[in-house]
Design a protein that fits this description.
Distance between the termini of chain A: 20 Å
Radius of gyration of chain A: 16 Å
Order of helices and strands of chain B: HHHHHHHHHHHHHHHHHHHHHH
Number of domains of chain A: 1
Largest sheet of chain B: none
CATH architecture of chain A: 2-Layer Sandwich
Strand content of chain B: under 5%
Order of helices and strands of chain A: EHEEEEHE
Distance between the termini of chain B: 68 Å
CATH topology of chain A: Alpha-Beta Plaits
Oligomer: heterodimer
Helix content of chain B: over 70%
Number of helices of chain B: 22
Largest sheet of chain A: 4 strands, antiparallel
Helix content of chain A: 10-25%
Strand content of chain A: 25-35%
Chain lengths: 118, 426
């Protein structure tokens, strides 16, 4: 059993800000998150998950240059993450298919968390 | 804001605290765990302090209970967010993992604060409080504090002890919760009967604390009776806990509570059954008791509550002391002895034997009993001996009453015994 990081990109039309005037739609969308994550949690596979704000800073290089960002296109923007346990990358991919962001033109990047050699 | 309005708000706050604090603690415990009981209580305290402040500025909301629940929910959200990555709250519990994530926090909280669930939460918490590893004294203390909204001072007053002693009891019980990670949940079906018996025992102890006149403060006494009946009422109302003995205990408490007004006179003295003004008995409550007793008539076993309720029912139905059906009552006592042969039950049966058959047979039963050693330590036994000898051997009666006097702490009981002593022809 390894841990996998899911990075959610896109699906900006379903962000909280975008649905401010449609609270029922927002509720409905969040119920889908609940259902997906609740299922994972019940199987003891959920480690943690959080949404992210759109704004932030980038710190780069030895000069530690700070810039505003990330100014990517909505589709590229990381909107949140989830860490779960799965038996294989294939299983993790199967799990990721339940993510509600996929219903809104978003995508999930599935990455196994690596154990570094000691 | 004028002083009257402020007074009204404080009074409303006190009433709401009694009614709502227990529910709030029960729900919050589901969120934070019993190991963080103190945290739950702090959130409730904060919520009420905030409410009183806000209401004094903006006025009382239309539905204060709902306002409080909402405020407690929001405070719980703040607490969860603050402790998201701390080890204070055990998020490894699958239910709680979802409280750790912003994706699911809000919906989880809506589910947890669902009005329909809250009554059962209170009951689950009651089973946790009546954990077999906690002494009965500590169980009652915790129930009064966490589920009935009593202050430490009020509990100290109710048990005639110091606030310090109450705080220590509470501290020890909370330590027990922390160490054993007690979960507030209904026992599995196989254990339901036994665990419910423990809960009922605690409720009935609470009731008796109010019913027996160990202290004369009428408000506290009535408060304890009400709380005991409230908790038992919750057991009656939940599909998880509707056992026949639950209804029987409720019936018993109704029959006893119906007669409370006639038991104590204006000066706090005890009025014996024979002298009680039966017109003071609460007919409505007796009717309710009757309903509960009817509802208790299912299942295969008869509990001691059934029989005790039947005895209390006989008393409630008798138009006068003289017309009481003592034969029936004696039959019930014989049944009670077969279920629950404690020295107290046997002693109570003895008083009925005396009533039905007189002194000779009673003394004969006493001489054959194996309970004599336990009885000798109980003032009621010596009071009965006094009654037995009162007409035939006043000197012996005097000795018995005097022994009884030394064995009871209750001022009201002492007064009654002194009255009996002064009525002896010696």
């Amino acid at each position: 059993m390894a841990e996998y990081l899911f990075l959610f990109r896109g699906g900006a039309d379903m962000r909280e800000e975008a649905l401010q005037d449609a609270p029922e739609k927002w509720q409905e969308h969040m119920q889908k998150w609940m259902q997906w994550m609740g299922g994972l949690s019940a199987q003891g596979k959920l480690v943690g998950a959080q949404p992210l704000k759109d704004t932030g800073k980038q710190v780069a290089g030895t000069g530690k240059v700070v810039t505003d960002g990330p100014f990517m296109e909505g589709k590229e923007m990381v909107g949140g993450y989830l860490i779960c346990k799965a038996g294989s990358l294939d299983e993790a991919v199967e799990i990721s298919k339940g993510c509600p962001v996929l219903e809104h033109d978003g995508m999930v990047e599935v990455r196994e968390i690596k154990e570094l050699k000691m | 804001m004028n002083r009257d309005a402020q007074f009204d708000i404080n009074k409303l706050g006190d009433q709401l605290f009694r009614r709502e604090a227990g529910k709030m603690v029960a729900v919050l415990t589901k969120i934070f765990g019993t190991e963080n009981l103190q945290l739950s209580e702090d959130v409730v305290q904060d919520t009420f302090a905030n409410a009183l402040h806000t209401w004094s500025l903006k006025g009382i909301p239309d539905n204060p209970s709902a306002w409080l629940m909402r405020a407690a929910r929001n405070k719980a959200v703040d607490t969860l967010r603050r402790n998201k990555f701390s080890t204070l709250i055990d998020f490894s519990d699958p239910e709680r993992t979802l409280l750790q994530s912003e994706y699911t926090l809000s919906i989880m909280m809506d589910r947890i604060w669902n009005e329909d669930e809250i009554r059962d939460d209170l009951l689950r918490m009651m089973y946790a409080c009546c954990h077999t590893g906690i002494s009965e004294e500590n169980q009652i203390t915790l129930i009064l504090k966490t589920l009935c909204g009593f202050s430490t001072a009020e509990i100290a007053k109710a048990f005639v002890t110091s606030e310090d002693a109450v705080s220590k009891r509470l501290y020890r019980t909370k330590e027990f919760f922390r160490e054993h990670r007690v979960k507030p949940e209904f026992p599995p079906p196989a254990l339901l009967k036994d665990r419910t018996a423990a809960v009922l025992r605690t409720i009935y102890l609470l009731f008796n604390e109010g019913y027996n006149s160990t202290h004369t403060d009428e408000l506290i006494r009535k408060d304890l009776l009400e709380q005991a009946m409230y908790l038992c009422g919750l057991l009656c109302g939940s599909q998880h806990t509707r056992l026949p003995e639950v209804f029987a205990a409720m019936a018993l408490m109704c029959f006893h509570a119906a007669r409370i007004n006639s038991r104590i006179d204006d000066t706090g003295g005890i009025v014996l059954l024979a002298q009680q003004d039966r017109s003071l008995w609460d007919r409505h409550l007796i009717g309710k008791g009757n309903e509960f007793l009817n509802k208790a008539a299912f299942g295969e076993e008869i509990s001691s509550y059934h029989v005790e309720a039947a005895i209390a029912y006989e008393h409630c139905m008798a138009p006068s002391f003289e017309t009481t059906n003592w034969q029936n009552i004696l039959r019930y006592y014989d049944l009670l002895v077969s279920i629950h042969p404690t020295s107290i039950v046997l002693l109570n049966r003895l008083t009925v034997i005396f009533k039905v058959y007189g002194a000779a047979r009673t003394l004969n039963e006493i001489s054959q009993s194996s309970c004599i050693r336990e009885w000798n330590r109980n003032y009621l036994f010596h009071a009965l001996m006094g009654d037995i000898f009162a007409n035939t051997d006043p000197a012996a009666a005097k000795t018995s009453y005097e022994t009884a006097l030394q064995l009871t702490q209750s001022a009201a009981e002492k007064d009654l015994l002194r009255k009996k002593l002064s009525g002896l022809a010696c």
